[in-house]
From TrEMBL:
The keyword Signal does not apply. GO terms for cellular component: Golgi membrane. It is found in: Golgi apparatus membrane. Belongs to the glycosyltransferase 47 family. It comes from the Eukaryota. The keyword Glycosyltransferase applies. This is Putative FRA8-like protein. Residues 91-388 form the Exostosin GT47 domain. Transmembrane segments: none annotated. It is a single-pass type II membrane protein. The lineage of its organism: Eukaryota, Viridiplantae, Streptophyta, Embryophyta, Tracheophyta.
Amino acid sequence: MFNTMAKNRNGFYVKMKFFPTKNPKPEKAKPFFVKHFKWILWFSLSFYFFAKFLNSHETGTSIIKTIKTTTIINHSHRALSESKVDNGLLNGLKVYVYELPSRYNSDWLSNARCRNHLFASEVAVHRALVNSDFRTFDPTDADFFFVPVYVSCNFSTVNGFPAIGHARTLLSSAVEFISTELPFWNRSNGSDHVFVASHDYGACFHAMEDRAMADGIPEFMKNSIILQTFGVKYPHPCQDVEHIVIPPYIPPESVKSTLSKSPIDGQRDIFVFFRGKMEVHPKNVSGRFYSKRVRTEILRKYGNDRRFYLKRHRFAGYQSEIVRSVFCLCPLGWAPWSPRLVESVALGCVPVIIADGIQLPFESTIPWSEISLTVRENDVAKLGSMLDDVATTNLSVIQRNLWDHKLRQAVLFHDDMETGDATWEVLVSLSKKLGRSRRRSRVFSE
């Protein structure tokens, strides 16, 4: 019992007494659901939103995986950019670079042209690997062995072009040196050794196709991997060896300088561009016609066509013409490939490839069909109408693909290898050739 005083409306105090009931009637027990309704409701809502979050997250992950898979299968130019950032492609790859006597490489650099002419990828790859994080100084840890021999720097005093008659002798001497100094060549019979053959017919080491085919690949190199600019999609004795097709060398500094003056998406007032050797009557060299007469046909058909900017003479600043052009003709010369291919891609001019059966550099990652046009050698007389059709239909799409800076990166070599550049692509290609069993055997031996 307890007392309390309460004030009523009239200001009087009323004294009230509360007495508990002697036998209070027990309160009827509430059902569990009613008694704990608030907690059950809170728990149910929390579980609902948590489950919804998990479901959304799982769905999003599946979509991402599907997109990545589709990208890789299609080899679109998104696949190219993925290969640039996915260091997993090169995870653990190690290359041993032989330190050969200077007569095999650095002595040739006394001629400044050696490191800058169109065959200079042999120098660029060497320099990039020497400075690379993928280089190992322990040959027992190596996946591949790079043999740095420069054979394209012996310039002819007659015409100034590389004379490679000494190539087989120099390379043979280098192989003899490394096979007597270290055991790794003999251990694999040279199958994990990498050479560069950056001239017209690659590992056949001759500028004329019939002579190159007759001479074939030197016997001592037939088990090795050759990085070569020459590549075709039909059987040919000069690629009858494990090989990787690489781009010819164009100095990245020259491209950077040109683009600093004329942006890649700037005005292009030249419709079709070509500067190079074109003969009214192609020179007959021991029965061989230069360019299979393709360039002669282009000159004959379009020499007076105002849409075509065709020049036969050398001009040191010709890159300034490429960056002003919509289409750049890349016809074959003595061999199918041409430095114009790299210059066109690097400077944003749509390459028009005229070389039947050519295999292009890094075809597994560079989407050539999305950034270039291919014209059969026998169809050069139709070039005008073909290019007009492209200009009025899908030119903007091609240019948008072509102007992706990753493509420019993929065709250029740098002294210090950069992620996604041409040497990087070489290593990606080598990594794909590296069998899982080889990796496992190296790990177990450790």
